[in-house]
Structure formats: structure tokens, C-alpha cells
Amino acid sequence: MAVIPFEILNLNSLLFLDHIGYLFTLTLLEEWERGPALIRKAIELNPYYSLQAHYALFLDWLRQEEYEHAYLETLNFRRPMLFWDPLMKAAAFGLLGRYEEGKRAAEELLKLKPDFPTRGRVLIEHYIKFEDIVERLIDGLSKVGLKIE
Questions:
Q1: Cα angle at 115 between 114 and 116, to 5 degrees?
Q2: Which of 38, 83, 85, 127 has the most crowded Cβ, counting Cβ within 10 A?
Q3: In the chain, what are the domain boundaries?
Q4: How far apart are CA 12 and CA 1, in angstroms?
Q5: Distance (Å, whole) CA 28 – CA 36
Q6: List of residues 6+ apart from 90 with CB closer than 8 A
Q7: Is 66 helix (H, G, I), strand (E, B) or coil?
Q8: pLDDT digit string, tens, across residues 49-76
Q9: CA 63, CA 91: separation in Å to the nearest integer?
């Protein structure tokens, strides 16, 4: 399999811009400045960008402990049939102290993933590779009554 050196990729390609930003943000590259900037550029330039871009921005806001911004990103994710949608909302609400709204989001999460209390950490860690962000997310969930084993 041929590997394309990163330097020759066109970072201005609308096809790749949000994906490259997503990968910068969520992989071990820890490009917390560059990744979100690329994602925001993709959102600005491409009306058909990938909604998963908001997931990466959500995590960046969570990392910065900017919970109101993190919550606002959840409004753009709009994937109600994926457990990440209510998971992100429940955690953000918990971290914001909006417990009743968070409990409703946690109920939606449990409808999609009834075994989430026992499998939640594993599912989260499949996508989030930064322990401090994982713990912040789990803390938000616990504040709305969703305890993760």
C-alpha cells in the first residue's frame, strides 16, 4: 500500500479538509491548534462538510474546559440514532450543571446502548485517545446519574 506524504496533500481540498482536521485533532498528533482550524475552514467553505467534524470540535472545547462551547457543538452533530449524539449532550449538560436536561439525554443514550454503563469506557476509548478528555466526559455523565464502570 502506497503512503502519500502529508506534505503533498492539498490542505485546501474541500474533499479532505474536514477529514484532515478531524484526524489532526483526534489522533495522537495532538494538533489542537491546526486540526480545529482546518475543520472550521472546511465548515466555512463547504456546505456539505462531514458532520463528524463537530465531534472533533466538541472534544477540543471539552479539552479546554469550555463546556458551553462544547454543548453548542453538540447541536450541530445531529445524529440522533448514533449513541455519540446523546452521549455528548449528556456529558456537556452534566459539566454545565444542567442536570435535568442531562438526565434526559442519558436516557436517550441508554435506549440506544442499554449496556453503556458497563461498556461505556471501552466505547469512549475506542475514539478518544486522551485520558484527561475521557475522564472529563465520564465525569459529565456521572453528574447526570450515568455511572460508568
A1: 95
A2: 38
A3: 11-50, 66-149
A4: 24
A5: 14
A6: 102, 103, 105, 106, 108, 109, 140, 141, 144, 146
A7: coil
A8: 777 788 888 999 999 999 999 999 999 9
A9: 13
